Amino acid sequence: MNIIDQVKQTLIEEIKHSIQQAELADASEIPEIKVEIPKDTSNGDYSTNIAMVLTKIAKRNPREIAQAIVDHLDTTAANVEKVQIAGPGFINFYLDNAYLTAIISEAIDKGTEFGSTEEKNGKNILLEYVSANPTGDLHIGHARNAAVGDTLANILTAAGYNVTREYYINDAGNQITNLARSIEARYFEALGDYSFEMPEGGYHGKDIINIGKDLAEKQPELKDLDEETRIKTFRKLGVDYEMEKLRTDLADFNTHFDSWFSETTLYEKGEITEVLNKMTELGYTYEKDGATWLRTTDFKDDKDRVLIKNDGNYTYFLPDIAYHFDKIERGNDTLINLFGADHHGYINRLKASLETFGVDSERLEIQIMQMVRLMQDGKEVKMSKRTGNAITLREIMDEVGVDAARYFLTMRSPDTHFDFDMELAKQESQDNPVYYAQYAHARICSILRQAAERGITPSKDADYSLITNDKAIDLLKKIAEFETTIQSAATNRAPHRITNYIQDLASHFHKFYNAEKVLTDDEDKTKALIALVDAVRITLHNALDLVGVTAPESM
């Protein structure tokens, strides 16, 4: 429990104690005491309506009840400086802000761990994100998925969860056969043989042409293989080539995975047969029209789904079920999938499939990532000027940089459409949110360097009572909110709450800096303010790190 929560809980306990002391109600009769932050800060730090809630029990009017509570309140124990009764019986509490200064020492002590929960909660979460087919470049939709997924993983880890970051490699199925056939056509084309046509639904990208040329140059002997062996070889080489490129792009985007799960392993380990048998044993499969069906309508799906077609081939749905069966078998409590906007219709059937092999579907959470529009000069940019195709992740990184791309793509709730203003992302001005936040960190580092030149370094021994400026107090409150913000972002799977927090923290710092001279002739006060500024630096650095964005020391 952080300082803010501790103080709030102490206040609630003292209110409860004062109710008993005033003989307004027995301990067993006291209802839940709600203490909330008023919308108008002039109404105190916290407010409660408990006096009005108690009218029936205490059989007195609310203002009398409120007065009795105030008269019996131990203000020292409750960290309260002033109490005010307002309106029909609201009690407003103005806290003694001295408690806030403890957050400075906590930040300095914990350093890079500040904001993170100290104890793991023992919950295992498997977070699957990106999982693009290895058949081409990553585009803007994948970029948003990567930024949000990686940030969410960081947040969940900081909140005490055991998180596995996973990329599912779709290296089986028709799309990979088409990839192999496409490479084959380009391979023979590079050797001067144009008799191999591109397959229907083949891949015409420049990367496939390059793979074909590269293989023709380095492995001309592949042309002599029989067709089956050749296609098998091209499948593997094609997936390896594309995955290497995807891994490189994602690593450069500061996006990392603990596990790269191959669809092929589901076949090799017999897990498809295993889960099929389990669903059959539980009575959820049936035969119809020569096909094998799954009763997903038993669990809110709009229709039953085919698992095995009448030609004996699996549908794409069956390996997906086996994959989620595998996730559960690995001991994960919660499964989180980040899907593209085109997967909306897939949610119910996938959740239903978990129930058919005996797992509560509430353990699967699916977040649909809405579309991103790339905007430049007020117009949507759909195509790359270089290739004429969709703009790739690599091009976005080259255009605006990794920091700006990750920050912008995380700023909005993933279930909302987002216009990515590339011009704004490149601006070195306070209008650019990532620049604004990074500039605040760089300015702090500059102040700390200047202080060090005067022999002053951040210390927990500073006299924090000298921190009295209102803007400094507001800044302390914002620092103290960091851990609860992380917890809230984790609970609600809302990475954008961290970027919102970063903007607020940077804004509070700039307001403080404009209102209060940090490096003064008063050495004791300077030491206190330097400690505060260092706490801001630590908080801002850690928050930016959650988003996968650097915290520069100079700009």
Report on the structure:
- With about 550 residues, the chain is an alpha/beta fold.
- Among the domains are: about 5-95, Gyrase A, domain 2; about 175-240, no CATH class; about 430-545, Isoleucyl-tRNA Synthetase, Domain 1 (Orthogonal Bundle).
- The protein has 21 helices and 15 strands.
- The protein has helices at about 5-20, 50-55, 55-60, 60-70, 100-110, 140-160, 175-190, 205-220, 225-250, 265-270, 270-280, 315-330, 345-355, 395-400, 400-410, 420-425, 435-455, 470-480, 480-490, 495-515, 525-545; strands at about 35, 45-50, 80-85, 90-95, 125-130, 160-170, 260, 285-290, 290-295, 305-310, 335-340, 365-370, 370-375, 380, 420.
- The strands form four sheets. It has a five-stranded parallel β-sheet with strand order 7-6-5-11-12, sandwiched between helices. It has a four-stranded antiparallel β-sheet with strand order 1-2-4-3. A three-stranded antiparallel β-sheet has the order 8-9-10.
- A hairpin with a 2-residue loop joins strand 13 (about 370-375) and strand 14.
- Helix 7 crosses helix 9 (about 225-250) and helix 18 (about 470-480) packs parallel to helix 21.
- The model has no long low-confidence stretch (mean pLDDT about 95).
